[in-house]
Write a structure and sequence with these properties.
The chain is of the alpha+beta class. It has a domain of 227 residues: C8orf32 fold (Roll). Helices cover 51% and strands 20% of the residues. It is built from seven helices and 16 strands. Strand 6 and strand 7 form a beta hairpin. Helix 2 packs across helix 3.
Length: 396
């Protein structure tokens, strides 16, 4: 029996058509992929160009930075080498300074010891100077033990009233030469020395001395006579003498038992006595050589600043009481001033370069070209001593 055929229509896509569609889709996908790849490549190329540019810039900047750093490193290396060299030099300098410091420390200790020794020497020398000035003060008047001599001087050489004191300087010479029998004796005889200034006591014990001893003794006698007059504010009148052709007698003492012939009195208003020494006529040698006499000023000389008072000073020979004239004028004896020896004005000239007052000693220094004094030198030593002490204190 035959089966009944059922009428059913089935559509079947052809295989070829299907494959074509698949191929078409694949092509489209490939194109899309290719486009995407091209776009990606283009993007990558652009990105690569940008990166390359950035890389090139970075490389350039890096090279520049490296070059700068290299230069900086070179500079730093040079500086480092220089610093090392400086450090080495500083090390050497430090060692030298250290050695110098040790040496200076030793020298400082030595100098400090020397400075302390110098201070002690200054103290000793200052004391010697002070003792010298005290010595002049002590020997500016007659000591108490010479009261008999002072009584002789007062009774014979001084006339005192309620208003005045009159002192005959020639009479002092009379007392010394005739009443006391004092003689001119050089230092070799009195002290066995070439040059020594005797004290009042030594002069009396030796019964005389040389010109400076006579001057010191004469001044002490004069001061002892006049101090009482000054204390009572009496007018003081002095009388010296000088040669004069006359038949009258010039009485030397108040009792009029001693006199000079062929002489006249010279009144002196100045009444402050100082000893002046230098190159001048000497009674004993009869020549111009080293000699000391008395200078009488209107005002008392207390320091180097007062030496101008000697321009009006009257000179008297203590070994005779004779008037010798006025300094810088009639006496032809000149006071040394600055440049006196530099200009050689002392040649063939009598001059004064040493002065002794009641409490000091003045000497013209050719080196300093100025007058110096014991008192001024003692003050300068004291100032130097203080400076040295302060210097030592500040360095401790």
């Amino acid at each position: 029996m035959e089966k009944e055929k059922t009428s059913v229509s089935l559509n079947k896509t052809p295989v070829r058509q299907t494959n074509f569609n698949i191929f078409k889709i694949s092509i489209i996908l490939l194109v899309l992929i290719l486009i995407i790849l091209i776009i990606g490549v283009v993007v990558l190329v652009n990105e690569n160009d940008n990166l390359q540019n950035e890389f090139n810039n970075f490389k350039t900047n890096s090279n520049l930075e490296i070059s700068n750093l290299t230069n900086s490193i070179n500079i730093l290396n040079n500086e480092n080498n220089s610093l090392k060299s400086n450090l080495f030099d500083l090390g050497n300098d430090f060692n030298q300074l250290k050695n110098s410091n040790n040496s200076l420390s030793q020298e400082y200790v030595m100098l400090k010891d020397e400075a302390n020794q110098t201070i002690q020497k200054i103290s000793n020398y200052e004391k010697e100077l002070q003792d010298s000035m005290d010595w002049f003060g002590t020997n500016s008047i007659l000591p108490v033990k010479q009261k008999n001599l002072l009584l002789q001087l007062k009774s014979n050489c001084r006339t005192k009233t309620n208003a005045s004191c009159e002192i005959n300087l020639g009479c002092i010479f009379l007392i010394n030469s005739e009443f006391q029998n004092y003689k001119y004796l050089n230092d070799e005889i009195t002290s066995n020395e070439v040059d020594k200034l005797q004290s009042i006591e030594e002069f009396v014990n030796n019964k005389g001395g040389d010109c400076e001893d006579y001057s010191l003794f004469f001044k002490a006698e004069f001061n002892s006579l006049i101090n009482e007059c000054r204390d009572n504010n009496l007018e003081i009148k002095l009388t010296a003498w000088e040669d004069f052709k006359t038949t009258n007698k010039l009485w030397l003492n108040n009792s009029k038992t001693w006199y000079f012939e062929n002489a006249k009195a010279v009144d002196i208003e100045n009444n402050f006595a100082s000893i002046v020494c230098g190159n001048m006529f000497d009674l004993q040698s009869g020549k111009t050589n080293g000699h000391c006499i008395l200078a009488f000023t209107k005002n008392k000389i207390n320091s180097v600043l007062d030496l101008d008072f000697l321009n009006e000073a009257i000179l008297v020979e203590p070994q005779s009481g004779k008037y010798l004239g006025v300094i810088n004028t009639t006496s032809n004896i000149f006071l040394v001033t600055n440049n006196f020896f530099v200009n050689k004005s002392y040649i063939n000239t009598s001059y004064i370069d040493t002065i002794i007052i009641d409490n000091d000693f003045f000497l013209f220094s050719k080196i300093e070209n100025a007058w110096q004094s014991y008192g001024g030198f003692a003050k300068e030593l004291q100032e130097k001593q203080i400076l040295l002490k302060n210097l030592i204190s500040s360095t401790n």
